[in-house]
């Protein structure tokens, strides 16, 4: 299936590795012109070089989404460099594990900046450009925890559930202008992060109906489809890629 992504201009946050990189890679493979953002200059340059091997030269932007205003500035810069924007993928690192009693005001603020404000700031800059162009695809990488809270992930559980409300609120406001907004909910997916936090295959096999972790490319395949014109009638949705882990919600 030709997704018609050739020449589309895409901005992907958190794209130096993991899910963000996989989404950027899939979009680049489909012919999109990708601007990849992350906070480590060397790593995002390397990621962009990899993406460029698919044909279209990819652009690297170094920005810390945990810094106020950084997402706004990165989005404006990408729009300038790409000459517009068709696809925005909001993604960042997950907040540290902590039960409620361990989360102080600074941790709430850091999580809010990193997950929430980086998203709403980028959307605020991108939406007028997308509306003017009559086409836009906004994807929020959240988590299955948005629907089924995970023990000890208080900040993530709270903010990601809120982001689903954001998607449901804004999607109808811009639907008639050709812009769709959807949330993607990864379940256990084999990224460097999973290795770092010590999630084992045995643990996943015990919980997930498919008895295995997802691969980042399986997640990216959904993102590429939702980013395409073919997904033009899908908006305001929260779609899990989780091997059947979510059941009741
Ligand atoms: P990851 O840690 O492997 O990658 C995160 C990416 O975001 C990296 O490129 C990193 O450099 C970048 N990043 C992190 N903080 C940043 C910041 N402040 N500014 C700019 N860039 C920043 O994580 P991942 O496994 O790819 O997961 C991506 C998101 O999906 C995370 O929020 C994670 O919590 C969530 N998630 C992942 C899984 C999973 O199984 N992998 C499951 C559920 C939810």
Q: What's this entry about, in short?
A:
45% of the residues lie in helices and 15% in strands. By secondary structure, the protein is α/β, with parallel strands linked by helices.
Order of helices and strands: EHEHEHEHEHEHHHE
Count of helical stretches = 8
Average pLDDT figure? 97
- Assess the beta-strand content as a share of residues: 5-15%
The portion of residues assigned to helices is 40-55%
CATH H level, superfamily name: NAD(P)-binding Rossmann-like Domain
Characterise the protein shown here:
The protein has 249 residues and is α/β, with parallel strands linked by helices. The protein has one domain: Rossmann fold (3-Layer(aba) Sandwich), CATH 3.40.50.720. It has helices at residues 18-29, 41-52, 70-82, 105-133, 154-174, 192-196, 201-207, 216-227, and strands at residues 9-13, 33-38, 59-62, 87-90, 136-141, 179-186, 238-241. A seven-stranded parallel β-sheet has the order 3-2-1-4-5-6-7, sandwiched between helices. β4 (87-90), α4 (105-133) and β5 (136-141) form a beta-alpha-beta unit. α1 packs across α8 (216-227), α3 (70-82) packs parallel to α4 (105-133) and α4 (105-133) runs parallel beside α5 (154-174). The two termini are 30 Å apart.
Which terms summarize this structure?
249 residues; alpha/beta; Rossmann fold; 7-stranded parallel β-sheet; 8 helices; globular; binds nicotinamide-adenine-dinucleotide
